[in-house]
Amino acid sequence: MKWLKRFRLIVHTVWYFGLINLLDGQLRHPLLRKLLSCLPESKETLEYSNAVRLRLALEHLGPIFVKLGQVLSTRPDVVGPEYASELAKLQDRVPAFDGGIAIAQVEKAFGKPIEQIYFDFEREPIASASIAQVHQAHLFNEDGTQGQKVAIKVLRPDIKPVIEQDLALMHWGAVWLEKLFRDGKRLKPREVVKEFDKYLHDELDLMHEAANASQLGRQFENSAMLIVPKVYFDYCSRNVMTMEWMDGTPISDTETLIAKGIDLKKLARFGVEIFFTQVFKNGFFHADMHPGNIFVADDGRYIALDFGIVGTLDEYDKRYLAVNFLAFFNRDYHRVATAHIESGWVPADTRAEELESAVRTVCEPIFNRPLSQISFGLILMRLFETSRRFNVEIQPQLVLLQKTLLNIEGLGRQLDPNLDLWATAKPFLVNWMNEQMGWKALKRNLEKEMPDWANILPSLPRKVNEVLSHSNDQSRNGLQKQLQYNQIIMVIIAILLIFILLK
Fold this sequence. Notes:
With about 500 residues, the chain is α+β, with helices and mostly antiparallel strands. About 60% of the residues lie in helices and about 10% in strands.
């Protein structure tokens, strides 16, 4: 059976790369530890550190495990900083599949020959990864001549069964990891695999990626900082995605950027501004901003590619981030603590002074550096680590944001080592907080809710009468009556405010 053969390969890989040593001290049962000690020791890779051996093992197991390692690299809270740093080196590179197979995939998706779909189609791919590869092509103009140059992303054939097999083994392994290992529950292996499962299945549906690209493009339409390629939905399916071709210089090729006269300091600031615009204005951010997915146009704007993974934030998440970032950089640790308690991120009986002390202990050393060396991503990571000590479950979207923020910071400081992220980000945070508070915010929210108020207001007299009648039928308990009258007063005040503000 295929799954059994794959399982044997995984076990052999764990032994060959000397990862048994990692397991030995973690096993709960003495009998299992004794059995492992009887295995012959592999000496092939013992000159490497444990983190390096883990990276090599994942590379040996293939692209799905490489992707798992990439996800783990964003979770230093789970694997530790050393492993996270090493796993971040994993590259998603696999040999391309035959161009003829890609053409067959496209023809199957649209039900007609490739010659009727595209004006031309390059059989040789220009890029290849574990899930899909990219080909160059041209669309037709209305008169049948050569039209828009496009990039065609084609899903690997028969990739889903391979992924499902590996995911099934990962889910099975996560259950046993939690049962057999001392730190099994703390590391939350089932939660990590579940998160990874979601990422992979999102990437398997190219319509999902096309929709992400379209939304990001709409939000940055006519932007002076970012170009998002146009998606041609008439040429998209679950297995094929067609988007505008983008010419640019890889963000990592700083020599070429300098030769083209690109202002690297300005580019670094743009990266931070784009990120905070996505987070605090749109609540929708590109969550896979590594150097391979970012190019620079000759006019100095960023070009974003690969939209398989995005993050979303609601108003609650945005307020949490803004309050904490502002409090952190003002070194107001008491405000950080009270913000956590007020928002329900920690148990209600948590003493603010205890949380404040824990946050101060972690963050004060960070602020003994110049602002140009302070990492937002590191601060967020330290905050999450401290929060977990107080039984806080950090939401996946915030972990995704932390990973993206670390990527943005790395890119920004590669372009400008003296980049002061705080000076660039503070206006966004202050403006966002100002917009969320005060009379203007109240008026905006009331205007937004006007369609609902149009239905509610006519029925208010009847509802007030029901409340009063109900109070007469119930116990004459003073507190109960007071609460009911308070409700009526609040409704009346709300109505008056609406008429005053919208007059």
